[in-house]
Amino acid sequence: MSLHTNFPSIMRMYDMISEVTSRFTGWGGSSKSSKEFEEWASEQLKLAADSEKAPEVSFLKVMAGERISPESALSESKEMLGPGTDTTSATLAHILWALSLNQSLQDDLVSDLKTANWTTDMTELESIPRLAACVKEGIRWTGAASAMLPRIVPTGGSLLAGKQIPGGTMISSSPIWYLHDETAFPEPHCYRPNRWLERDGENSVALLSDYYIPFSKGPSTCIGNHFAYLELYLSVSQILKKYRIQQPEESMINLDVEATLPPRLEWVAAVPIGKLQVVVSKRLF
C-alpha cells in the first residue's frame, strides 16, 4: 500500500515487468492476480449499476445505490470477499498439516472432543482448552491476514515508541510482526499449542494477549473475526471426528514432530512454496 501511494511510477514499472515475465514464462505473480481481480470487480460494479442485469440480492448493488462514489462502493464491496474466506482456509490447512505431524497431539485433542460429545455449540467448543489452543496457535502461526494496515499521522504529529512522527506521514504495521514476535512467542515459526496451555502467571497471560492481534483491535477490528473462529472451531472438530489426519510418507505416520512454518511464496500471503500434503482415513473408534 505504501509503495503504491508513495512510489506509483516504481509500481507501474514493476507491474510491466511482471506482465512481460508472465507472457514468456507462464508464471503469474500476485500483481497479475490482483490486476485480474480488480478488472473482475470493476465489471461487477458496472453490472450492479445496470438495473436489468443486476442480481436481486447484491451487496455491491446496495452500495452502488447509496450516495457514495463508485470507487468507495467498489472498495467496500471487495472487502467483503476477504474476511473469513481465504485466510480461514489457509489457516485450517496449516492446522491440519501440523496435526498430521504430531499424532500424540491429535489423539489428545480427539479425546477431549470425544469427552465433550463432539459438540457443535460454539460456547462449548471454546471451553475445550486444547482445541482453543490449537486454533489460536494456528491463527498465530499461519499469520494469514498480514496486511499492512496503513494510517496517516494526524496534523501536529504523534509520539510513537519514543520518536516524534511528523503529521501527514503514512505509517503501517502488520499483525504478523506481533504474532511472530519472540518476546511473547519463543521460536515463533514452530506450531506449539502448549504455549497457550502452560502459562507462568498473570504476566504471561497478559503478554500473550498483548501480542495476539490477528484481527486488529478496537472499532477497526476485522469484520470476519467471529465468523473465522466459528469456521475453524467447527471445521477442526468435525474433521477430526470423521478422519485421522496423517502424513503421506509411511516413515512419518506415527512420529510426533513439531511442525515448522513452511517457506512461503511471499511473506504477506499464507501460500507455501510446497504442498501441505496429508492423508485422511476414516476414524475407527
UniProtKB/TrEMBL annotation:
Which keywords has UniProt assigned to this entry?
A: Heme, Iron, Metal-binding
Question: Which cofactors, by name?
Answer: heme
Give GO MF terms, alphabetically.
Answer: heme binding; iron ion binding; monooxygenase activity; oxidoreductase activity, acting on paired donors, with incorporation or reduction of molecular oxygen
Keyword Nucleotidyltransferase recorded: no
Q: Which BP terms does GO give this entry?
A: mycotoxin biosynthetic process
Task: Kindly list the positions annotated as binding heme.
Answer: C222
InterPro entries cross-referenced by the UniProt entry: Cyt_P450, Cyt_P450_E_grp-I, Cyt_P450_sf, Cytochrome_P450_monoxygenase
Q: Does the keyword Transmembrane apply?
A: no
Which family does the similarity line name?
Belongs to the cytochrome P450 family.
Protein known as? Uncharacterized protein
Species of origin reads Penicillium crustosum (Blue mold fungus)
